[in-house]
UniProtKB/TrEMBL annotation:
Residues 96-164 form the PDZ domain. It comes from Halomonas saccharevitans. One of its GO terms (molecular function) is serine-type peptidase activity. This is Carboxyl-terminal processing protease. The keyword Lyase does not apply. Residues 1-34 form the signal peptide. The lineage of its organism: Bacteria, Pseudomonadati, Pseudomonadota, Gammaproteobacteria, Oceanospirillales. InterPro entries: ClpP/crotonase-like_dom_sf (IPR029045), CtpA/B_N (IPR055210), PDZ (IPR001478), PDZ_sf (IPR036034), Peptidase_S41A (IPR004447), Tail-specific_protease (IPR005151).
Length: 435
């Protein structure tokens, strides 16, 4: 892989029991530009500060219960940040420590990433192979209650704290599916969530499947290893890159994954008010799969770093993006240490695709829209009964059984089946042109 500028900040993810949507995290002290004294014309609003001090004093003197000064000030900081955007937040020592622990790649929880949408706690995506995904939680589900606590008055961080807990303990969530008329309650058992971000397999001879569930520090290297494994028996005729329900993660990992398919050109750039918020990432010549026909699957749960990859491959005309519109999180957060075991998560920039598109609140529009669904055979056709359904049937050899399982997956996952069909069609057209 090409060398990256040494000055780039270290990036990581906030993987607590429930993940927060993050495009870029850099644990660092406050930038120098943010530490400068106010310039002329930037005088502090004296009247508003006096009003703040008066409110503080009246609460101290007249509130029905005694309140500690530290609690009032921390709540003031939380309120200050919560009014900016859904992703900026003050992190107390416990929350900041949780962030540090999350960078180690495992955490206790149920495995969902949440955000605030129209003031309501909303599932961005469940993480693969976690209690949340096994229970059927979906992107855009509204979380109405956590155990017995309504969520309409909770901040995002308060909701996260309630959903955290020791592995083995239970959590009740009252959720409302996007297409449902009534809420339902699900009971989840918290686990230690250990996430491996890349999976791969052959769907058919010559056609590979590469699933990236989130972007961690080693995701780029794992993608290279997966591509090498898929090509052991020869070059691929096509590849499905599955970014559905991928909540994002480490920006550098997204760059590395896009770089695996691009041998030149811009991948993503960021813009913000501070000088160090402006960054540009380009592809290098050393590319794992520069010519493999590619279909990229996205949906409403594809966010942040997943949208960077899809947008780069789309703008560079490197692959066909298929599925439904992505989530639309194109903002960049930095985690800044406050020096007292506390931190500040602040939105500092927006990122843009190579063609200059901002994804923020827009998302990536697929080249080919294919909605979620499955293929089913009408009951009256009697074609839904197979040899495998008959009592006492003989088992097929392992290889044939594996192919049968893949075939069943393609019937149950309509988007994946259509991606494979498109790759085959592209291969046929390519052979005809070459012939």
């Amino acid at each position: 892989m090409p060398l990256r500028p040494a000055a780039l900040p270290t990036v990581t993810r906030h993987l607590v029991s429930v993940l927060l949507p993050i495009a870029l995290l850099a644990i660092a002290p406050l930038p120098a530009a943010a530490q400068e004294a106010p310039r002329a014309g930037d005088d502090l609003p004296v009247a508003e500060i006096q009003a703040f001090a008066e409110v503080f004093e009246r609460i101290k003197r007249a509130y029905v219960e005694e309140v500690e000064d530290e609690d009032l000030l921390r709540n003031a900081m939380r309120g200050m940040l919560s009014e900016l955007d859904p992703h900026s937040a003050y992190l107390d020592s416990e929350e900041f420590e949780s962030l540090r622990e999350s960078t180690q790649g495992e955490f206790g929880g149920v495995g969902i990433e949440v955000g605030m949408e129209e003031g309501q706690l909303t599932v961005i995506t469940p993480i693969d192979d976690t209690p949340a995904s096994r229970a059927g939680l979906r992107s855009r589900d509204r979380i109405l209650r956590i155990d017995d606590t309504p969520t309409d008055r909770l901040s995002l961080q308060e909701a996260v704290n309630l959903m955290r807990g020791e592995p083995g303990t239970q959590l009740r969530l009252t959720i409302l599916h996007q297409d449902a008329n009534a809420p339902l309650e699900v009971t989840l058992t918290r686990e230690v969530i250990r996430t491996r971000s890349v999976k791969h397999e052959l769907l058919e001879d010559g056609y590979g499947y590469l699933r990236v569930s989130q972007f961690q520090s080693r995701t780029g290297a794992q993608v290279d290893e997966a591509l090498e494994s898929l090509e052991q028996d020869g070059p691929l005729d096509g590849l499905v890159l599955d970014l559905r329900n991928n909540p994002g993660g480490v920006l550098q990992a997204a760059v590395d994954v896009a770089d695996a398919f691009l041998d030149s050109g811009l991948i993503v750039y960021t813009e913000g008010r501070l000088a160090d918020s402006a960054m540009r990432f380009s592809a290098g010549r050393e590319t794992a799969a520069p010519e493999v026909p590619l279909v990229v699957l996205i949906n409403g749960g594809s966010a942040s770093a997943a949208e960077i990859v899809a947008g780069a491959l789309q703008d560079q005309r490197r692959g066909v993006v298929m599925g439904t519109q992505s989530f639309g999180k194109g903002s960049v957060q930095q985690i800044m240490s406050l020096g007292n075991d506390e931190g500040l998560k602040l939105t500092t920039a927006l990122y843009f695709t190579p063609d200059g598109r901002s994804i923020q609140a827009q998302g990536i529009e697929p080249d080919v829209e294919v909605i979620r669904g499955r293929l089913e055979v009408a009951e009256s056709s009697r074609l839904d009964v197979r040899e495998a359904d008959l009592e006492g049937h003989l088992d097929a050899p392992d290889e044939q059984r594996a192919r049968r399982e893949v075939s069943q997956r393609l019937r149950e996952d309509y988007q994946l089946g259509e991606a494979l069909n498109l790759l085959k069609a592209l291969n046929v057209l390519s052979q005809r042109r070459d012939g």
